[in-house]
């Protein structure tokens, strides 16, 4: 029987809604609408316009309704860590802060003065990044933030949008795990971590796992869109969790690279991997589908290139992705690399000049042409991938025989080939829309069309063509 699903996939720079049809003929995807997601700067702070995101979701639903399409369900995934403060009256207290807001600089160190890092990592297994939800919350607490003090509930971004659609508040496992507030052993909120910022489990919505129903579209949304009481499913709300669920792997012997604004590289483990070594290496254990743990490292990804493109555009130079690859190939032997995770690359005013200054600081040749800059970025990412894969091999309970690259970066032929050459193993690229695909397949599992994660992957492998890059080719 044919089923039609609606996936909302929101990234840090853009969002899209996808219509997916699953039948005996396989899985077909079609984009409904695409829109920008801009950081809003107000004074020194940065926010997300959740109301504009919601408006675009409604527009997508209206388009579907206008075509007379009957939806089976709706699912939403977003980036991690950020959240909305909700008052006792159920209203949002202000726009959600963005993870790139500099106000959390130094926040982990202040938190660790009250709860040691070893205790925090031991209970959560999450790598320390200054924008983790717990550090955002502690920053709000220390500054006597009005929204924090008045908040009755905290909703992560996909859960907040789900609440706007249904009126039901939930706290989905995979997205909550990114905030360093979930114990990966119990797969529940960790009370001691919440207590450190004056919160309890009651300050969050009903705890749910990927595949559970949130509720149906509220009457007001039904009227606005022309749809009926369509169920909204709590898919793997963290976009990377949805993307990893869409890896078209044949067996467990793989590492993955979700390549987009961020590069998230890791393995899918049946259990969390938490010990002093993984703490020192700052690896993370995030929630996945069907009780799996995503043991991974967050690496700054195409953010470096996108910010350079902004600089070049301001200078009157537009670069298509095809031309970017051409320029990279011309300068493939340019030798310089930088650490893509250097804090100075997080949100600089001018990415080009910042990368140049880092190269000069290290005594390396400074990229002069745009092609040299692109080559420097690509080689820097590849060097980091090699470093992370070597570490993953130390902890993986299986041999890593190939790297699956998913997300938008999987279409980058140059970077993929350079990665295969450096790793000395096959790099399998695709699907590019992995996040939306994983979102849809969790909905399909809820609808009873597929039984488990490996059946999902089998359908995905048949539905989407992948390209394999071999070392030395």
Can you walk me through this structure?
The protein is α/β, with parallel strands linked by helices and 473 residues long. It folds into 2 domains: 3-237, ATPase, nucleotide binding domain (Nucleotidyltransferase, domain 5); 249-429, 2-Layer Sandwich (Nucleotidyltransferase, domain 5), CATH 3.30.420.40. The chain is 38% helix and 22% strand. The protein has helices at 50-66, 107-112, 117-124, 133-142, 146-150, 157-166, 173-177, 191-195, 219-225, 239-245, 276-280, 303-314, 321-330, 351-361, 370-395, 413-423, 434-446, 453-463; strands at residues 3-10, 14-23, 26-36, 39-42, 45-48, 73-77, 83-86, 153-156, 170-172, 182-183, 188-189, 206-208, 212-216, 231-234, 254-259, 262-269, 284-287, 293-300, 402-406, 427-429, 467-469. A 7-stranded mixed beta sheet has the order 17-18-16-15-19-20-21, sandwiched between helices. Helix 13 (321-330) packs across helix 15 and helix 15 (370-395) packs across helix 16. The longest helix has 26 residues, at 370-395.
Question: What are the main properties of this structure?
Answer:
473 residues, alpha/beta, Nucleotidyltransferase, domain 5, 7-stranded mixed beta sheet, 6-stranded mixed beta sheet, 18 helices, 21 strands
């Amino acid at each position: 029987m044919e089923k039609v699903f609606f996936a909302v996939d929101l990234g840090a720079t853009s969002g899209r809604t996808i219509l997916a049809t699953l039948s005996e003929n396989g899985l077909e995807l079609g984009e409904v609408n695409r829109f920008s997601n801009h950081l809003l700067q107000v004074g020194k702070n940065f926010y997300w316009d959740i109301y504009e995101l919601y408006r675009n979701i409604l527009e997508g639903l209206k388009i579907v309704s206008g075509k007379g399409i009957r939806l089976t369900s709706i699912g939403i995934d977003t980036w991690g860590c950020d959240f909305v403060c909700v008052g006792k009256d159920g209203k949002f207290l202000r726009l959600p802060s963005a993870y790139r807001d500099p106000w959390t600089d130094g926040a982990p160190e202040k938190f660790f003065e009250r709860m040691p890092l070893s205790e925090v990592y031991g209970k959560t297994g999450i790598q320390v990044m200054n924008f983790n939800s717990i550090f955002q919350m502690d920053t709000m607490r220390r500054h006597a933030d009005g929204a924090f003090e008045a908040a009755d509930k905290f909703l992560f971004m996909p859960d907040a949008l789900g609440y706007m659609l249904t009126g039901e508040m939930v706290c989905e496992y995979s997205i909550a795990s990114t905030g360093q507030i979930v114990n990966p052993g119990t797969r529940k909120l960790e009370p001691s971590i919440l207590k450190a910022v004056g919160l309890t489990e009651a300050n969050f919505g009903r705890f749910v796992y990927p595949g559970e129903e949130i509720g149906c579209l509220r009457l007001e949304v039904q009227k606005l869109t022309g749809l009926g009481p369509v169920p909204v499913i709590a898919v793997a709300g963290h976009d990377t969790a949805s993307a990893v669920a869409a890896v078209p792997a044949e067996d467990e012997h793989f590492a993955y690279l979700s390549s987009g604004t961020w590069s998230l590289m890791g393995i899918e483990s049946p259990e969390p991997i938490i010990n002093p070594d993984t703490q020192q290496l700052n690896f993370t254990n995030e929630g996945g589908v069907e009780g799996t743990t995503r043991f991974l490292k967050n690496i700054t990804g195409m953010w470096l290139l996108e910010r350079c493109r902004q600089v070049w555009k301001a200078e009157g130079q537009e670069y298509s992705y095809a031309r970017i690859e051409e320029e990279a190939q011309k300068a493939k032997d340019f030798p310089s690399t930088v650490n893509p995770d250097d804090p100075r690359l997080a949100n600089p005013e001018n990415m080009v000049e910042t990368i140049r200054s880092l190269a000069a600081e290290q005594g390396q040749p400074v990229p002069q042409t745009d092609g040299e800059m692109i080559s420097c970025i690509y080689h820097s990412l590849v060097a980091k991938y090699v470093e992370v894969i070597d570490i993953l091999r130390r902890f993986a309970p299986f041999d890593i025989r190939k790297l699956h690259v998913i997300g938008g970066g999987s279409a980058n032929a140059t970077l993929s080939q350079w990665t295969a050459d450096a790793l000395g193993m096959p790099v399998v690229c695709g699907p590019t829309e992995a996040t939306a695909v994983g979102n849809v397949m969790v909905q399909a599992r809820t609808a009873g069309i597929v039984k488990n994660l490996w059946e999902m992957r089998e359908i995905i492998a048949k539905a989407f063509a992948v390209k394999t890059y071999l070392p030395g080719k």
